[in-house]
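Two folds, back to back.
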Amino acid sequence: MFSLTTAAVLSLIPSILGQTVWLAGDSTMAAGGDGAGAYLNSWGQYLSQYLTLPVTNKAVAGTSARSFTALGLFASLIDEVGSGDYVVIEFGHNDGSAGSVDNGDEDAVGDAYNLTATVTESDGSTEVIHTFDYYITNAALSLTAKGAIPIISSQTPDNIWDGDVLAAPSRFVPYAQEVAGNNSLVYIDHYDYVAQAYEAIGETTVDTFYPVDHLHTSPTGANVVAEAFVRGLLCSESTLKNFVNSAGEAVPSEYSSKYIE
């Protein structure tokens, strides 16, 4: 007589329910990184190897919380997700102030939902823009209304060092934490988990993870960044950690000679 073990039955639940993990972010998460070639990858390309759920990567290079909203990318994502799906939202690298002429990505400075700023476009026209909090909160609440489960992740570090440690994070790292806290959402401090890994590995080796600039990683570097996200996930209260596979369970909590030359 055919029978299934409890573990086997549980392993079938994701496919039966059709749950998916969706990714929304910039080039550090997007498939193909910044599009510069095979020698640059994003951490989002490596996440699926650590999960039992399928991963759909909707991240787009060059976007910010504001432009991902303005381009209709959040709206499209919200239309596609289903109840029970997870959505990892990670922005910050392109959200900073642009200067005297708006670049279409900058957010209003500040961490309050209702703050706005007026920016000048290249043709002399003006536009009222909102804060990182505003754009991420609106997306997260719309996803929650669909029954999806947003996870707010802080941006990854640039390869910029201050002595033996990475330089301090941008304002968008605490902004992301505030959005999560204000809306009772899971927060993954991806910046900090990557920083812990990099500082254990050391600057000399980490420099090899960045063959072109201080932002976009090699395949090896991208995988370290993916591992750091999984480590953060395992240390969080997110139910997505129940779908971390054996490879994900084995990601390093401490880094040693595996990456150190």
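---
second:
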Amino acid sequence: MSDKEFGNNDDLSLPKATVQKIVTEILPPSSGLAFGKDARDLLIECCVEFITLISSEANEISEKESKKTIACEHITKALEQLGFSEYVPEIMEVASEHKEQLKGREKKANKLEQSGLSTEQLLAMQEAAFRDAAQRHG
């Protein structure tokens, strides 16, 4: 995949506030270290480039396998082929945790579906709850 397929990396970015928060959480508060805006912007550019590199490699792997969807195994193979195999175990652990979180979300969605109430009934209940809250905190 080329930059043309992505529309050029200048069009791609990550949320600055999110990156800043991640870095701030990593820096020990007692260190007194600050993370400059120029350093954050460079880190964002590096992250976008890394994501592009891994995605491109994973895409090539999936195409060789005649797959139309890039799957987790394509990402891990890409990481291994690009020399990042030491990260694969931790990435698989994070992926597993993410799947567990998704299951919890699905259970909440199923709970609504299994309630036996129509969308209109659920909406009416929600509106009543909002009215009650507004009256209490009015």
